[in-house]
Amino acid sequence: MSSIAPTQPNPITHRLRVIWYILRTCISERLMYRADFALGTLFRFLPIVTTLFLWGAIFAVGTDHEETDIAGYSYRQMISYYLLAMLARAFSSMPGLASGIARQVRDGSIKKFLTQPIDMLSYLFWHRIAHKVVYYAVAAGPFALVFWLLRNYLPSWPGWTIFGAFLASLIMAFLIGFLIESLLGLISFWFLEVSSLLFIYMMFNYFLSGHMIPLDFLPPQILNVVQFFPFQYLAYVPPAIFLGKYTQPELIQLLLVEFAWIVALFVANRIAFKYGVRRYSAFGG
């Protein structure tokens, strides 16, 4: 009687099942504290009011809103930029990612990724996807309400080409934000305490990403230096694309450079994880 060898699971199917399990588990974790998560999400929209009043006061100095132009931005364009930058930040911000990696390295809980057949960076990526899914589900209503109330300030439809480039920049902003934060967290393999480094990063990120002000406001000497770093893709580039700040050749080149940054940061993450694990000494439980 011939024996039938057990069939091996399809690697692609197996990987998809693992990804689905991670997503389902992480979404369940987020929904466990859904009231707190929803309240925190809603409160993030409160600074919108103060920011609108601030820019209104700036543009109203000495003249009418509609006549003032600052660094190529009218008051209407400035409000549009801020709303679109806020949307970009919703994609690129990764609260707690780097500090979470550093904490796991410090207390030894990272050992679970070294002893089980689960890639840590892949797990953290899909965990962050789950976080964003829940965040967008909660924030979709407030975002829609804010954009509807301020619809008169938004630019006209830019066309499908610009809109497609805008969506691509949002997706790549998410990837760059994740890869930068995870790389900062992996530095904890060499320096257990990275809180000071994270504070410096957040300070530079807030200013050089275009979250605080459009990068067009910076002096040319500083702007030329900032363009060599990936910060601009986190908040400035998506709204600048939507507002038509780039010509078509500039837009193509911009997206290609952004994609190159993703590849470079991905490779840097893999190298940092590989050599970090080699020198890792487990502490804690």
UniProtKB/TrEMBL annotation:
A Pfam entry, by short name: ABC2_membrane_6
Keyword Transmembrane helix: yes
Superkingdom, natural source: Bacteria
Membrane-spanning segments: 37-61, 81-102, 133-151, 157-180, 187-208, 251-273
InterPro entries from the UniProt entry: ABC-2_transporter-like (IPR010390)
Keyword Heme set for record: no
Record key words, sorted: Membrane, Transmembrane, Transmembrane helix
Record's protein name: ABC-2 type transporter
Source species: Thalassoglobus polymorphus
